[in-house]
Every structure is written in C-alpha cells, then in structure tokens.
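ok new one. same drill as before - structure tokens go in, u give me an amino acid for every spot. 133 of them this time. try not to just spam alanines like last time pls lmao
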C-alpha cells in the first residue's frame, strides 16, 4: 500500500511540474522573434507565373508575359503600400487598379479557356480568403 501511495505521489508531482517545464522552453528570452520576411516583387511574380504555368499549362511565351504582368502588379502594390501618410481608401484604389490591369493583361495573354479557368480559381480563392464568410 505504501508503494502505491508513493508511486501516486511521484506521478502527481511529475504531472504538476511538467507544464511549467514545457512553457519555459516556449518562452525563452534568448532567441529573437523571427519576423516573416516580405517577398520582393520579383519573387512574387515568379511565384504567380509558376503557379499559373502549373495550373493552366502555359507556353513559354505566355509564362514570360504573365511574369511581366505580375511583376508590374507587384511593383505597383509595393509603391501603393510604401507611400507615407497615404490613407487606406487611396491605397485600396491603387491596389484595385493594379489588380484590374493585371486581369486585363491576362485576358490578352491567355486563351479564352485558360482565362475562364483562372477567373474561376481566382474567384474561389478570393471567396475562401474572406474573413467571416
């Protein structure tokens, strides 16, 4: 009986202190907090062109044109975000303008079937990213 009580008390003490030791591992002050690095416009354009190449089976010529259009959009978005003192409505208007220009470029670059597929994928991606919906 004493052995059982001794084992229970040891188990209870281990369980009581286990969360405290785990928490100290997570909250170490020695390590700096890692920030998410913002991708460059070139990296974002490469990602867009690679994704569209995979999803829509783009030709090499189409891939280059999509990259150029995506790069232009990414640069315009960076410019809109980096303006000091700009209000949010002005920034949103610039971002919307960049997105509209990108869409019209894609309409010219892609075939009608590719554009329809891209539009459907883009609309579903937008819908899935909407908070609260």
């Amino acid at each position: 009986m004493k052995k059982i009580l001794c084992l229970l008390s040891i188990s209870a003490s281990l369980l009581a202190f286990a969360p405290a030791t785990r928490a100290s591992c997570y909250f170490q002050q020695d390590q700096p907090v890692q920030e998410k690095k913002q991708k460059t416009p070139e990296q974002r354009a490469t990602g867009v062109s690679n994704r569209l190449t995979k999803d829509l089976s783009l030709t090499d010529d189409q891939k280059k044109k999509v990259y150029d259009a995506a790069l232009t959009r990414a640069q315009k978005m960076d410019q809109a975000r980096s303006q000091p003192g700009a209000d949010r409505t002005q920034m949103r208007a610039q971002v919307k303008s960049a997105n509209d220009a990108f869409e019209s470029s894609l309409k010219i670059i892609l075939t009608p079937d590719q554009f329809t597929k891209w539009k459907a994928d883009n609309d579903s991606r937008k819908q899935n990213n909407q908070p609260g919906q």
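Residues 41-122 form one domain. and btw The radius of gyration is 26 Å.
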